[in-house]
Amino acid sequence: MSNKVICIAGKNSIAIHILDYVLNKYSNCRIIACINRTDNFKNNWQLSFAKHCKDKSIEIVKLENIYEIENLYFISLEFDKLIDVKKFKTKNLFNIHFSYLPAYKGMFTSALPILHNMQETGVTLHLIDNGIDTGDIIAQKSFSINKDFNCRDLYVEYLSQGKNLVIENIDNLLNNSFNTKRQPTLNSSYFSKKSIDFNNLKIDLNSTADQILNQIRAFSFREYQLPMVYGYLIYKAITLDSKSMSKPGTILRNDFDSLIVSTIDYDIKLLKDLLDEVLTAAKNGEINKVIIIQNLGFDITLKDENGWDILIIASFNGKFKLVKWIIDNKIVDINSQNYKGTSVIMYAMTYAFNSGDKSIMNYLIEKGANLYLVDNKNLDIFHYAKLYDETFFCELLSIRK
């Protein structure tokens, strides 16, 4: 097997997991990677596959540079380029698709099954041909769609199920000992980029409560978008027992945390997204407001687009009482990090340096904050302390000893 070349192509955690698996089990092979055009070598809510390859010293290649490799095994894991099989000398071209083929070929497989009120979906490992997700099937795994899943939840489940399916079959792929079956025509479906316009999402309120609930679920992916109704971002919907007596789409009640709206059949409660309220309260140290929002059922541990949560924000802004409440009540992990890897204790040190007030930093250390955490640049708090002030560095050094 040592003369084989394994190319992992794609993005996000599934590509990282499979790459690490291959590195561990097939280290005698040449292992290379193709990265997506949108991968900028920076972590966000998902880890960067490109950055991971760079950190692991994996050779990153362009697609056109591997066409001539005869002993190539190409594994596509959310890769963003269409593959022209005629250009390859190998036939060992594999793809993981996030649906139970032949259903839901193409785009938006995390949204459309929910929008269509499907109860099940799956992941499919298949050969790549010149169609769109039309290659012969190697292996599949089905699973139920939880009735509370939104688009993001389903995507995360796809990542987990897809990773497991590849790992279960990768030995057979690399040993050419797998069987295939043609995709049936029955229940086959395809959806293009035009099937959903995420730039112009509009909830159709002239629908049943269940249809509206599924729209909210299907379009809720916090890192990309949340649906908007009457100017409010909505993250969840709950169907009520009361039958609608008003015209569909009529606002029956508008509270701080929710809208109650009439539909074709039953009234529906639309829960407003309160993350901005939570993070503003954290910045201002408003414990009571944070508690009120928590008691309304909103998840106050959520992060913003940069990975900042209430503990990071409270620490950075010197709100000691709120930091203490968060830690004492175990609301957020004391070692929380943003998407750049900057930890709570690093933010607390920044506040201490700028203000001269070390109370939050010392409290976090007392409560067991990890001083050895590193950020995406592989730098820890001792590095930044030395840049800030020699006294800070010496104090932290004494704690380490």
UniProtKB/TrEMBL annotation:
Limits of the Formyl transferase C-terminal domain: 199-270
InterPro entries, A to Z: Ankyrin_rpt, Ankyrin_rpt-contain_sf, Formyl_trans_C, Formyl_transf_N, Formyl_transf_N_sf, Formyl_transferase-like_C_sf
Domain Formyl transferase N-terminal: residue ranges: 91-168
Superkingdom of the source species: Bacteria
The name this protein goes by in its record: Formyltransferase family protein
Lineage: Bacteria, Pseudomonadati, Bacteroidota, Cytophagia, Cytophagales
